[in-house]
């Protein structure tokens, strides 16, 4: 009986995204280019339904457009490790911004458009926006910076 309960608990934790992702399997985050004025950063997790809806839109918009002064990044929260999430945010130069935005409750499934000079979140994009609205939001953010 204990074996069945242990197996069930393990399966449920894995299904809910609680399984740890080894550091070797996490995406490598690098600092944005020096000429970037805006960072479009996706707070992402593989178990997040909103991420699964938004990520393809972001990729399509990124591939179809050239945004001067805009860098794109993804911070992966699949492992639910706040330490790893904030370490990646620090690498991107937005650690303070992300801590101020999330605190102890990291949310995934949104694209944050951040002014790299001031650290201000210019706007936030979610899965409800289509590719045209997403493109407009990024273009507007670049124009403000």
Molecular structure report:
Residues 1-26 have low confidence and may be disordered. The longest helix has 16 residues, at 49-64. The protein has helices at 2-15, 49-64, 82-92, 95-102, 131-144, and strands spanning 38-44, 70-76, 110-115, 121-125. It has a single domain, classed as Glutaredoxin. The chain has a 4-stranded mixed β-sheet, sandwiched between helices. With 145 residues, the chain is of the alpha+beta class. A hairpin with a 5-residue loop joins strand 3 (110-115) and strand 4. The protein contains 5 helices and 4 strands; from the N terminus they run H-E-H-E-H-H-E-E-H. Helix 2 (49-64) packs across helix 5 and helix 3 packs across helix 4 (95-102).
Summary, kept brief:
The protein is an alpha+beta fold and 145 residues long. 43% of the residues lie in helices and 17% in strands. β3 (110-115) and β4 (121-125) form a beta hairpin.
Can you lay out the helices and strands and say which pair or pack?
Blueprint: H1 2-15, E1 38-44, H2 49-64, E2 70-76, H3 82-92, H4 95-102, E3 110-115, E4 121-125, H5 131-144
Parallel strand pairs: 1-2
Antiparallel strand pairs: 1-3, 3-4
Helix pairs in contact: 2-5, 3-4
């Amino acid at each position: 009986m204990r074996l069945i309960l242990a197996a069930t608990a393990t399966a449920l934790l894995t299904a809910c995204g609680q399984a740890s992702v080894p550091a070797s399997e996490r995406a490598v985050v690098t600092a944005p280019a020096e000429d970037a004025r805006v960072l479009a950063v996706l707070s992402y997790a593989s178990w997040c339904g909103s991420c699964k809806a938004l990520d393809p839109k972001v990729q399509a918009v990124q591939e179809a457009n050239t945004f001067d002064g805009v860098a794109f990044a993804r911070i992966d929260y699949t492992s639910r490790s706040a330490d790893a999430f904030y370490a990646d945010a620090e690498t991107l130069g937005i650690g303070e911004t992300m801590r101020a935005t999330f605190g102890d409750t990291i949310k995934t499934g949104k694209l944050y458009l951040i002014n790299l000079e001031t650290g201000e979140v210019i706007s936030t994009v979610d899965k409800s926006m289509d590719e045209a609205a997403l493109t407009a939001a990024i273009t507007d953010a670049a124009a403000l910076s």
